[in-house]
Amino acid sequence: MEKIKVRDSVGATLIHDMTQIIPGVVKGPRFRKGHVIREEDIPVLLSMGKEHIYVWDQKPDLIHENEAAERLAQAVAGSGLILDEPKEGKITLTAAYDGLLYSSEEGILALNTLEGVILSTRHNHYPVKKHDKIAGTRVVPLMIEEKIILEAEETAKAFSSPILEVRPLKPFKVGLIITGSEVFHGRIKDKFGPVLRSKVENWGSTILDLKFSNDDVTMIQNSIHDQLALGAEMILVSGGMSVDPDDVTPTAIKEIGAELVTYGAPVLPGAMFLLAYIGNVPIMGLPGCVMYAKTTAFDLIAPRILTGERLTRRDIVKLGSGGLCLECPVCTYPHCAFGK
Asked: What is the pTM of this model?
């Protein structure tokens, strides 16, 4: 790069975006890369505090910040992401559709340890909507050695999955079983079903069938078999999840021959959550808090299953870091620390 005085720069071509900041009015690129300086631009540049500008002095081992940011974005982007145009040396990645963000914490760390490389993202497993901002890439210097970007590209390739991707939630046919003698015998009105129906439909799935069961192991197991026979791709069994002797839902699920992943999750609310599989069909035992708490372990775990991910006990255990809901008077999830 060659440094020249702004007053002598008419006809020169900018090699980077130049930001103008007027407090309370504007903050953004006033002149874009490639702009040819005109006489009328000189007062504007001086008002921006620019006494000098830099003109292109290409060297074979250096690349411009815009190209570097774009190559970084392309290296980390998997499915479900859209790259915008370079802006002030940055590339923003946005969601192509609604879904769940999957990000490699190890990959993000590996890239950011490279000198001059920046990758900033949302948290792993963040629920996103179409057009939501997901991540940004840039480099610190205006010009960066190409070998660093090549190393970044090779680093990204070393991971078996993309550093960043948005996975859509698949539409599941969900079988719903409401347990509890008080509901089964009609002594109280079921309030669990409407809550679960709303959540399931909000995730793009449908309730295949709704059954009520007494607090009886055999009856619960028969209800599970009925849901499987109907073609349920996911089964939710609500209630009866505590250590009370009358709460037999965990026993019914465990003794039906299901592969138990976990009974208990380090998440509050939702500690008595259960996850098991019969073949490829996930069965979730839902504690009472799911009925009245806005966000619980169920909201952290179910969307991941709906992307097609098969969860392990380790996946559930890792939720302990960030698994404490602050139970704010007005729930703002996912725009909070819960599940992060």
From this structure: 0.85
